[in-house]
Amino acid sequence: MMGKTDVCIVGSGPGGALLAYLLAKQNISVILLERNQAVAQEFRGEFLNDEGESILKKLGLFAKVENLGLLRMEQIEYWQEGRLVKEIYPDAHQDNLGIHVPQKHLLKVILDEAEKLDSFHLMLNTRVTDLVQDKEGRFCGVKAIKDGSEFTIQSRLIVGADGRFSTVRKKAKIPVEVKNHGYDLLWAKIPAPYGWKPSIKNALVNGSQLALFTQAGGFIQIGWNIEHGSYPQLRKQPFEPFIEKLIMNFPELRSVVRENIQSWQDFILLDVHSCLCETWTKDGVLLVGDAAHTMTPTGAFGLNCALGDAELVAQQIYEHILLGDSGLTGLKRAEPKRRAYIEKLQALQVDMEKSFESLFTAYV
After folding, report:
1. Which pLDDT belongs to residue 325?
2. Smallest Cα–Cα separation from 234: which of 269, 188, 281, 194?
3. Which domain holds residue 287?
4. In the predicted structure, residue 313 carries a pLDDT above the cut 70
5. Distance from C-alpha of 245 to C-alpha of 205, rounded to nearest angstrom
6. pLDDT digits (tens, 9 = 90+) for 42-85
7. Overall pTM > 0.85
8. What is the DSSP string of 228-249?
9. Which of 24, 133, 305, 320 has the CA that lies 20 to 30 A from 183?
10. Is residue 11 domain-shared with residue 135, that is, in the same domain?
């Protein structure tokens, strides 16, 4: 089995899906590969900031997502041992402090629009195993496995939108600098109690951040920072003293926490790091989103950066295909400004992580 396309995009997260849609709209043939049997099966960031909201509105997608369900954050709060010490509200020019968008809603809207286009094709349950090179060493396709069968897709451009452990990045041997931020993250999801306001609530637990993010559909996502690499040892300790710290900071959640978080198995561990690739383009390969520049969860920039990448490179890819720009010069020209923006955000994330404890100092 062999296919042929203008652009092969690996990874159908928000960045890869949006890029596929934007290219297909320009009558560029696109094959979008997703290793899972359905989209939105892996956890990714689900909070829109101004950048992401603006992109979706400009493309006429935001209202469609809103119809499926999203939730505007009304306030940000800081709590200390069950006591509210600080509140932040939208200013006169804002109607929210971030928007929770379930990934399944966002991807459904993007992919439904893409499926209307003859130049778009989505392949699920398809895992990329290697890249194909021509005689000059330029990457010209991917090898993949679907339902146990191996096949090759020939492509004029390969886009790695396959996340922070990108197979495309690895197979293209693109150097990457990985930075350890000193913490990992425990995730859990619980039902929101009656009357819970759409908010982001923060607490300080033994010097580490504990955050509650209200989600559309009546849920709360818990994000709890722990020391990097400490989870194996932490799991050997009694669970009760650990979870009691959450209840102490947010006592109104006592019953719902007791019902839904009863052991270490009720948390999901995220190994936190950031990275920045030496280059985002190489010999017929382009990286976008976390594959090019992994963001930490701090500030919820990841989703928005992936959407921004997709919007930026869509036009450059169109020109690359139209003009036969095998050297990717248009994409290379677009990289420095975007790289400077990403580096600024990554530095901001570090500052936010270092200064989190100080947000409580003046109020304790």
Report:
1. 67
2. 269
3. 2-43+103-179+274-354
4. yes
5. 7
6. 666 799 999 999 999 999 999 999 999 999 999 999 998 888 88
7. yes
8. TT-HHHHTTS-HHHHHHHHHHH
9. 305
10. yes
